[in-house]
Amino acid sequence: MSLVWTTDAVPEGERLTYWRDALSRALVPMTVTARGDGPFSGRISSGRLGCLWISTVEADPQRASRTPAQIARAASDCVAVGVQTAGTATLLQDGRHARVGEGDLVVYDTSRPYALDYPGRFSTRVLHMPRRAVGLPEEDLRRVTGTALAGTEGAGALLVSFLTGLAASLPTCSPAVATRLAASVVDLFGTLVDERTTADAPAPADPHHPLVPRIRDHIDRHLADPGLSPASVAAAHHISVRYLHRLFEEEGVTVARLIRRLRLERCARDLTRRDPAAPTVSAVAQRWGFANPAHFSRVFRAAYGRSPRDWVRHGTVG
Questions:
Q1: CATH number, position 110
Q2: How far is CA 171 from the centre of its chain?
Q3: Would you list the DSSP string of 194-239?
Q4: Range of the structural domain that residue 145 is part of
Q5: What angle do CA 169, 175, 177 make, to 5 degrees?
Q6: Does 205 map to a domain?
Q7: Tell me: the pLDDT tens digits for 59-94?
């Protein structure tokens, strides 16, 4: 279902108050100051896509800021991506100033203060992703929040195109389709962050470093632990997550995706057993660290082209 807020029928003297309330409902509570002397106008349309929230905002010049007091009163642990579809903007967060032109993206964290300055009439598409759904190390997220990213190449171009299409199709998405599309958006964002952090990274560490086999052994021994993650692996070896990723750059896969791939391989192997006493699909998923059955089914199908139950029925090996 889509929700729409518009100042069209609001008396001129009450429009800014109405607009602040609309932004709080559609996005997060913010302080808004109009730029200009004329009557203010704006429109927001929003809708849910699985665990994500997508909004299109069109309005007159303004400055919107989220203060520590507002964060304390209404916490929001989300990562936001803004796609500038018309006009320009400046994002301020963590001491960074990101200037955004039409077609660019900005990334910011709603749990920390920020400000968005729009000097002219503008339109932007805003995606809010719960931090738990993003699943990226805090260190990597901090490298992209408060920055502008090109929306014309690589994963940025794909994300811009995808969000443009999704905003138009939100009202017609079934819950099942919305969940799958949301997972695709999160994966695209993860790829975008990977691109940015890799481009900013120093020279790769030695892939033959003695830590690499020790880390691989650690991952193999802890696959059943749902808490296994790049952060936990790095902490166990007294290194930063950043250095962990550098060690594995020549593997052609991030550590998080390596963990998921190895877990899926163990699950696929166990699901081929013909023994009548073989564990259920859910039990196999839990055995190898997948706490959420729906998530397991989704990533398994993406990797092997069929659902876990179809895999069992066909007795596929490999």
A1: 2.60.120.10
A2: 21
A3: HHHHHHH--SPP-TT-THHHHHHHHHHHTTT-TT--HHHHHHHTT-
A4: 2-200
A5: 60
A6: no
A7: 999 999 999 999 998 888 899 999 999 999 999 998
